[in-house]
Amino acid sequence: EFDEKNERLFPIFAELRSSMYEEMIRFFTDLFQNDGSILSILDADHSFVDHALASFYELPNIESEGWQRVEGLRERGRGGVLGMATTLARQSGASRTSPILRGNWVLETLLGEKLPKPPKNVPTLPETVPEGLSERALIERHSLDPACAKCHERIDPYGFALEDFDAIGRRRES
Hints:
By secondary structure, the protein is mainly alpha-helical. It contains seven helices and two strands, in the order H-H-E-H-E-H-H-H-H. It has helices spanning 13-33, 40-43, 51-56, 85-90, 99-110, 135-142, 146-161; strands at 46-49, 68-71. A two-stranded antiparallel sheet has the order 1-2. Helix 5 packs across helix 7 (146-161). The two termini are 23 Å apart.
């Protein structure tokens, strides 16, 4: 859950959560007030950050303690709502990312597709990735089940594309 992150793994999340949320509010407020393009939702090269969020995003030269608009996010691997920490954190588990949640969110929320509910006998994935497996390998193994494969063919590519971000939206090397 977005509200519940593993405090041992993500000790800074609690203090950043309100800034992450406020970024989204300011982004959409700006979009509507300035009659921005709907395409900006996905490909905006700007956002709004306070000092704490700028530090989290590793943005240089943010001196002010207040909120400010920043440009050039795409060159830092961010941009639009898919690069915002609140989106990424909300579509993750408490201890790890979830390409399945993220991919499903893209399909259903952004693309408007409705997927069937998972079969009742689908095993729940562990909260932490077993040693020796990557997140991707865990999901690929899970997706081998023929009852799951059809939906995962559609979900997983979008979720895997967001694996450059951890469970609270921090950029990482994949």
